[in-house]
């Protein structure tokens, strides 16, 4: 890796940071498909396995293509280091397994990604880790939820799908006062718009599946943190639990990072225009998008996200009751012709989903109501199609009601 890495601007880091090229001088980063590595000597092998010498040993522990992805992501986040995983959820599992033990307590936002709430609220409870879920934007509620055994505060900003924003600097300070770590899921904003570590976060969680890949091709995940946290807490879990990122997937996401910044700006510009247009449509009750002045934390979002709202918005349809809400949301989704009905986000194609029956379908109705995920809510991940085509599609779908 070039020692210019830290002087480069983010745009340059996004296309240049990687492990050094091989003797063949390939300009595009190589894809190393190998599960084992030939060791120079038995002594070296022993030193490498003991962690006393650098060098690759076995595919579960590391791979040069994976290392390039980690170095590039860490550079973009302004983080000392990164460690990658097979998916975003396995990154969260790695974080929890690395930092927590029975008797520990987690405070997390109640508006987090559905599987995150399930993992922390239910799956970890089986192993004696307790949790409290609090309203995302209410700093006092976070403070009140902290217990003597609280080890981790975990937020996602903006959240999926309601785009609620939290004050990263304020929650970092709270966590550190309590002697806890503060982790931020930066999936929605990405380092192109928001760098949580500069605001005090200890750990950044990523689903590489979303905007980092950016073209809806592979699953990936990562944690960014200090070298110490990675070496002492996370790498040992990777080695024993094996949630390793496949080299091919790492290569795809590595190349995705090269266009991250321009994609985020273009897609966010379309999302803002679509959000403003949706606010004026008769069947729409409410639009959730950080770039709108009507967003309750618009000012904080703009300050934290480099003045850009991101590429995901949600809107709620007017309705008579819960049943009517679901019927109307399904009708709009079924009428869309250009946008895909697809429970993913961060693609170059515009994707729409019904969170209450998909990403948040495993939550209880009470958990869903707590998180504000109503049956009339539709999430839109805005892609790179022309704004005119996207808007025309929503126009005809809303007209079908
Ligand atoms: C998708 C998503 C995840 C989980 O990532 P996977 O790669 O699907 O495992 C975590 N957090 C957020 C905010 C997400 O949108």
Characterization of the model:
By secondary structure, this protein is of the alpha/beta class. It is built from 15 helices and twelve strands. The longest helix is centred in the C-terminal third of the chain and has 20 residues, at 260-279. The strands form two sheets. A seven-stranded mixed sheet has the order 1-7-6-5-4-2-3, sandwiched between helices. It has a five-stranded mixed sheet with strand order 8-9-12-11-10. The N and C termini lie far apart (56 Å). It has helices spanning 10-16, 42-49, 64-77, 88-99, 114-123, 139-145, 168-177, 190-193, 227-241, 247-257, 260-279, 298-304, 322-335, 365-370, 387-399, and strands spanning 81-85, 105-109, 130-134, 150-156, 181-185, 203-207, 221-225, 284-288, 312-317, 340-341, 351-353, 377-381. The protein has two domains: 5-259, Aspartate Aminotransferase, domain 2 (3-Layer(aba) Sandwich); 262-399, Aspartate Aminotransferase, domain 1 (Alpha-Beta Complex). Pyridoxal-5'-phosphate is lined by residues 87-89, 113, 116, 156, 160, 185, 187, 207, 209-210, 219, 221.
By CATH, the topology of the largest domain is Aspartate Aminotransferase, domain 2
CATH class of the largest domain: Alpha Beta
| Contiguous runs where pLDDT drops below 50 for at least 5 residues | none
Task: Supply Rg.
Answer: 21 Å
- The N- to C-terminal Cα distance equals 56 Å
Key features?
401 residues; Aspartate Aminotransferase, domain 2; Aspartate Aminotransferase, domain 1; 7-stranded mixed beta sheet; 5-stranded mixed beta sheet; 12 strands; globular; binds pyridoxal-5'-phosphate
């Amino acid at each position: 890796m070039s020692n210019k890495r830290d002087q480069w601007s983010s745009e340059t880091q996004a296309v240049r940071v990687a492990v050094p090229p091989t003797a063949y001088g390939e300009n595009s980063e190589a894809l190393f498909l190998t599960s084992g590595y030939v060791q120079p000597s038995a002594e070296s092998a022993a030193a490498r396995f003991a962690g006393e010498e650098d060098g690759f040993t076995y595919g579960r522990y590391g791979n040069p293509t994976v290392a390039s992805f980690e170095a590039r992501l860490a550079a973009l986040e302004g983080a000392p280091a990164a460690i990658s995983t097979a998916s975003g959820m396995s990154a969260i599992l790695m974080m929890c397994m690395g930092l927590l033990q029975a008797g520990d307590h987690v405070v997390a936002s109640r508006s987090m990604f559905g599987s995150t709430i399930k993992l922390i609220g239910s799956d970890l409870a089986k192993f004696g880790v307790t949790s409290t879920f609090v309203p995302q934007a209410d700093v006092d509620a976070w403070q009140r939820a902290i217990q003597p055994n609280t080890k981790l505060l975990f937020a996602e900003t903006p959240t999926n799908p309601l785009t609620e924003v939290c004050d990263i600097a304020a929650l970092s300070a709270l966590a550190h006062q309590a002697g806890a770590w503060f982790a931020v899921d930066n999936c929605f904003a990405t380092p192109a718009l928001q760098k949580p570590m500069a605001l005090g976060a200890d750990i950044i969680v990523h689903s590489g599946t979303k905007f980092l890949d950016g073209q809806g091709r592979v699953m990936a995940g990562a944690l960014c943190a200090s070298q110490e946290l990675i070496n002492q807490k996370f790498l040992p879990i990777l080695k024993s639990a094996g949630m390793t990122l496949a080299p091919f997937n790492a290569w795809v996401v590595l190349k995705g990072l090269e266009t991250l910044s321009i994609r985020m700006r273009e897609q966010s510009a379309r999302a803002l225009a679509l959000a403003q247009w949706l606010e004026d449509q008769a069947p729409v009750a409410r639009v959730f998008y950080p770039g709108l002045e009507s967003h309750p934390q618009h000012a904080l979002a703009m300050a934290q996200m480099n003045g850009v709202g991101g590429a995901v918005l949600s809107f709620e349809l007017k309705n008579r009751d819960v049943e009517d809400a679901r019927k109307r949301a399904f009708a709009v989704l079924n009428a869309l012709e250009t946008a895909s009905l697809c429970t993913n986000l961060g693609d170059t194609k515009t994707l729409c989903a019904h969170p209450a029956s998909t990403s948040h379908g495993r939550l209880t109705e009470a958990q869903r109501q707590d998180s504000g995920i109503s049956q009339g809510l539709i999430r839109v991940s805005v892609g790179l199609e022309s704004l005119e085509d996207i808007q025309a599609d929503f126009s005809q779908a809303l007209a079908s009601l």
